[in-house]
Amino acid sequence: MQFRDYYAVLGVAPEASAEEIKRARRKLARKYHPDLSKEPDAVERMKEINEAYDVLSDVQKRAAYDRLRRGGYRAGQDFEPPPDWDEGFEFSGADLDAAGGEFSDFFETLFGGLGGGTASGAQRRRRGTRGVDHHARIAIDLEDAFKGARRRVTLQVPEWDGAGRVSVREHVVDVAIPKGVRSGQMLRLRGEGQAGAGDAPPGDLYLEVHVRPHRLFRLEDQDLFLDLPVTPWEAALGATVRVPTPAGAVEMRVPANSGNGRVLRLRGRGLPAAPPGDLYVTLRVVLPDASAPKARELYETMARELAFDPRRDWERTT
Fold this sequence. Notes:
By secondary structure, the chain is of the alpha+beta class. Helix content is 27%, strand content 26%.
């Protein structure tokens, strides 16, 4: 997938106002609309123009796209969006309708699950309806997912300013993170969405939770995975070792003759749930540095006295 520069598609500067974006789209539509144009690539160009306009004319999508674009991406460059590219942006409305599937993979990857189709303020005043629901993605630490927590989160709410350019307002919310929450789950904050018209109630705010990568543990669903360094003698002779968990260290028995890569399971030591997840511990045998004189002496003794050849079975197959 390649990065798309929507400003270049419309031929406008990144600081262009909403009105300038609209004029640029109108001008290009007169040239490339398939019903009017004789250009051989009119259909494809019109699709690109409509896609660029969809993003740059929507204050929420444009603000998120601008932050991504500031990462130094260039048109045509191979591109994979960072997992947190839209973290903290507050979007409104239902899922996007990708215009009959005519938008690019780039667009779908970025905006296919974000909000769209928000009613205008005038429409809502006429209807007197409840405010529109908003949603945003937030990242939490594994420890908060394991133990639960209360956190104050600052979200970015994009808005048009008086000159038709993007401005960002902060929306601070207090969030109760339940114990055992998993990546992808939604937390609902009642009344924290868009204000209702007149006496109508406000919409709600839905926060999609993502658990940040941890320096020790890998989280899959409700199970945790850990690589545990062990010495050669702990693996060969067996030992009781201390293993970290999000709830604190526990003791685990390493069976004798455990090879590198052996996986041991600690039941119930994963993410809290009903039933709780497990912790899978992979043994990683770490060898002492042979540059130390004593270690070198012991290695040389083993080389002389142990009848051990890890490749002896190869002779039967080669």
